[in-house]
Write a structure and sequence with these properties.
three-stranded antiparallel sheet; lyase; 4 helices; GGCT-like_sf; ChaC; 10 strands; glutathione specific gamma-glutamylcyclotransferase activity; EC 4.3.2.7
Length: 208
């Protein structure tokens, strides 16, 4: 498992606040937050968490499953054992990081989500509203060349966005394990432990 920070394709402009969307353990751990959802992504327990991370949910010998988001079009090409209606809407929370805390919070999140997660920016909606809930703010996009985890910055381009930062573990990362029968996933969750028993991760997510 690499110890490098999460590969990044976008960063906030200096002196501005940032919004973060959480759909896993951040759902029950955030500061003041806005409940909302993202579209065109499917949440699944298709990522594993091993020992050695600051927030690990398993061990090196017995990794535990945690959630990630799968883009809808990619998900449609996979054999999902428990597909159901409205899978393309993922509820979570969006919380605002004030500009004074952006640098330290981003460094913490990059380290916390380093196990295969990358950064994307998505619209966040609230129930009954057609417009995204996160107000427009100026972001600077950095284009990257990625060779393994060696990353070189090429260009800086600042534009306006109305999206929240979200960490997503892509299907080509080393800790992605993909679909499995529901009973197999359930047993793995039940038996796994890391900073605590993995079943608490599931129950907290379900009850929040």
């Amino acid at each position: 498992m690499s110890s490098a920070p999460a590969p990044d394709s976008t960063t906030s402009a200096p002196g501005e606040e940032v919004w973060v969307f959480g759909y896993g353990s951040l759902v029950w751990k955030p500061p003041i937050a806005v409940v909302g959802y993202v579209k065109q992504y499917v949440r699944r327990f298709w990522q594993v968490s091993r020992g050695g991370r600051i927030d690990h949910r398993g061990t090196l010998d017995a990794p535990g499953r945690v959630v990630t988001l799968i883009p809808l079009e990619e998900w449609r090409t996979l054999k999902d054992h428990h597909a159901h209606k409205d899978d393309d809407v993922t509820w979570g929370v969006a919380f605002k990081i004030p500009e004074s805390d952006v640098e330290t919070t981003r460094a913490y999140l990059d380290h916390r989500e380093k196990n295969g997660y990358t950064v994307d920016f998505l619209d966040v909606y609230q129930n009954g509203q057609e417009e995204p809930v996160v107000r427009k703010h100026r972001l600077c996009h950095i284009l990257w060349v990625e060779v393994y985890l060696a990353i070189n910055s090429l260009e800086l381009n600042c534009t306006s966005r109305s999206q929240a930062m979200v960490y997503i573990a892509t299907t080509n990362n080393e800790s992605y394990v993909g679909p499995a029968p529901v009973d197999e996933i359930a047993l793995q969750i039940y038996k796994s432990y890391g900073i605590d028993q993995l079943i608490s991760y599931l129950t907290n997510l379900a009850s929040t």
